[in-house]
Design a protein that fits this description.
about 625 residues; alpha+beta; phage-related protein like fold; 12 helices; viral release from host cell; protease; Peptidase_S78_dom
């Protein structure tokens, strides 16, 4: 009997057909067939069967597109898929590739050259959503997932569905009919006639072959001993496939049916993505001793960086006999990507910790948005006579009028690259390894803070130019004091009155309520005094602003100028944005070329701007 699991995770791999690409270089999009309703030969606990994914589903608006089902870092996210729709027996979608991912850039060039790629899906199916039928003539069973969740779409060299591929403009719109096979077959390449001279065998990529052997063992349920035996005899991928078929036939004859080749129950700790995250977390715990390790990471607890390099080489089948520690580190960096990804995972965790520890004070005064690209982000403001009016006896409802204004800002990219030497890795120098990302995390937060502060100091303290051609703080905007004054109850009252009197685009009353008093360090004490809660001796000495305003001190501001700002939940004003799906600093890792070791790049896609002048007030100060 199968385990009583509530969900199954489906991924599929098989040779993909060739088709011309519909890739658009300008838009970086390609039309793909994500899946079809064709049956796929499979196994379950009762033996061979066919599996079908029903296309009568509700599809998500967008899912990640990743590299061959790898989920170990953001570097594996190639873009996103959207516009899911069914045509005949095909589920189609539009894939948009990232413009900032080196893997996506390489894939884009391959597609632009007309090279085809297969498409695989990751789908989650509850046990209750499988429906089984049997052919009355042959007795062959068909398992149909009548309801399933699309988790991700992958570009893969070996998709399970032979009809899932990048689409060609000449592909017909008719429904694809696929005949089910009686049993799953792994085909070995044909042998050349003895009279014909055999071609020289291609050199074997040991790491790639071992990775495919592990995939065969895991998806066909052959077990770790079978995987180890194939790796120990240095089997090629073709030899391992033939051995897998023999083993499946042997077990079937003995009545020992393996688990389904396309269904994985629970968590597989040998999965490369899980292994990278677990090892990266374990290394991070040596830097941050307060971190509690997850169960997968406990296996790598207290391993040094050379230990992790050795583990990556062993997993990839790289021989290490007689090598020094420095040579093992070099082998790990240049023969397997896992070691660099593990280091990148740890750097990312360390950098995010320090980045989140020192947020800009001004970010509290703005509203976060996400942008899908780097084009100017336009914010439309509407205003007019929108108050509801009494309906007369005839039932006439009067139309309102709208006035429109438009402000804009755009994202920009900020980045820095640094390297960690092979000597530091071989010496397990955690101090050098942790200090640089920790400092870069702080500098990333400082970059955001400076960009926000620069908006206020621009134009000699009057702010950026708005869509009407005037500075943010302008007498025509009703948000600038005519003369600079100290911060006291009187000047705060005048500033509040000006914000209360703000009107919209068509002259309608807005009545903004100030919540924050923003000052430079030079005015911090003055601001604290005026907002302090004091027990007055007379009614005239009562401080009406005590407990009403929150003091915000921004160290990047200078001079005597001070500001009042409304809550971003009440009215638009300051706005800041990240690139969608890449909020905060992003870390990319590769084996070093300019340096002997590993290189890491920290990238931030960030932008900010004011989209309305009514939520802020400025006084030049004195």
């Amino acid at each position: 009997m199968p385990p009583a699991e509530t969900e199954t995770l489906i991924t599929r791999r098989a040779p993909a057909p060739v088709a011309p690409s519909t890739f658009s270089w300008e838009r970086r999009t390609v039309e793909v067939v994500v899946a079809t309703g064709a049956p796929i030969a499979s196994w379950d606990w009762e033996g061979p069967c066919d599996e079908v994914l029903s296309l009568a589903q509700t599809w998500p608006e967008r899912v990640h597109v990743i590299d061959n089902h790898r989920r170990d870092s953001v570097a594996d996210v190639l873009g996103h898929a959207s516009n899911f729709h069914v045509v005949g027996n095909e589920l189609r979608a539009t894939v948009k590739l990232s413009a900032h991912n080196p893997k996506a850039e390489q894939l884009a060039r391959e597609l632009n050259d007309g090279n085809p790629f297969g498409i695989s899906v990751g789908a989650r199916v509850r046990a209750a959503d499988w429906k089984t039928t049997a052919d009355p003539k042959t007795g062959r069973r068909t398992r149909t997932a009548v309801k399933w969740e699309l988790v991700e779409v992958s570009f893969a060299p070996f998709p399970a569905d032979p009809n899932a591929m990048t689409r060609s403009n000449s592909m017909p719109e008719t429904e694809v009919q696929t005949q089910p096979t009686e049993t799953p077959v792994v085909t070995s390449p044909p042998t050349a006639p003895e009279t014909q001279r055999a071609a020289d065998p291609a050199p074997v990529n040991r790491a790639q072959a071992n990775a495919e052997i592990r995939t065969l063992g895991r998806t066909l349920g052959l077990g770790q001993p079978w995987v180890d035996a194939q790796i120990d005899r240095s089997a090629t991928a073709e030899q391992a496939r033939a051995a897998a078929l023999d083993e499946l036939q042997r077990r079937s004859a003995a009545g020992t049916v393996p688990t389904s080749p396309v269904v994985t129950f629970g968590v597989d700790y040998t999965d490369p993505a899980i292994r990278v995250r677990a090892a990266g977390e374990a290394l991070y715990s040596r830097i941050n001793r307060s971190h509690n390790l997850s169960e997968p990471a406990r296996r790598y607890a207290e391993m040094s960086m050379p230990d992790l390099a050795r583990e990556c080489c062993r997993a990839a089948g790289v021989p290490l006999a007689g090598l020094s520690t420095a040579s093992i580190v070099t082998r790990a960096l240049h023969t397997t990507s896992d070691f660099a990804l593990i280091l990148g995972d740890t750097v990312g965790r360390t950098l995010r910790d320090s980045y989140q520890a020192v947020p800009s004070a001004l970010k509290r005064l703005g509203r976060q948005q996400n942008a899908t690209d780097f084009r100017a982000r336009h914010r439309i403001q509407f205003g007019g006579n929108l108050l509801l009016e009494r309906v007369n006896e005839s039932g006439e409802v009067k139309s309102g009028t709208l006035a429109e204004a438009k402000e804009s800002y755009r994202l920009e990219t900020f980045a820095k690259m640094f390297g960690i030497s092979r000597q530091a890795l071989a010496n397990d120098n955690l101090g050098a390894f942790a200090d640089m990302p920790r400092r870069l995390g702080q500098l990333t937060a400082a970059t955001e803070a400076k960009l926000l502060a620069d908006l206020l100091t621009e134009g000699s303290g009057l702010g950026p130019v708005m869509a009407d051609g005037k500075r943010l703080f302008h007498t025509d905007h009703g948000n600038l004091a005519s003369a600079g004054t100290v911060i006291d109850v009187g000047t705060l009252g005048a500033a509040r009155l000006a914000m209360r009197a703000q009107v919209g685009l068509a002259g309608e009353l807005v009545s903004v309520t100030p919540k924050y008093l923003v000052v430079s360090p030079a005015k911090e004490t003055e601001g604290e005094k005026v907002l302090a809660a004091i027990s007055p001796a007379a009614v005239d000495d009562v401080n009406p602003f005590s407990g009403k305003l929150e003091l915000i001190v921004e160290p990047r501001l200078t001079g005597n100028r001070w500001y009042l700002a409304a809550s971003p939940a009440e009215i638009d004003g300051l706005e800041w944005a990240y690139l969608s799906g890449e909020e905060g600093p992003q870390v990319e890792t590769r084996a070093g070329f300019e340096v002997e070791g590993v290189q890491m790049k920290v990238r931030l896609d960030f932008g900010a701007g004011f989209v309305d002048h009514r939520s802020w007030y400025s006084n030049p100060g004195a």
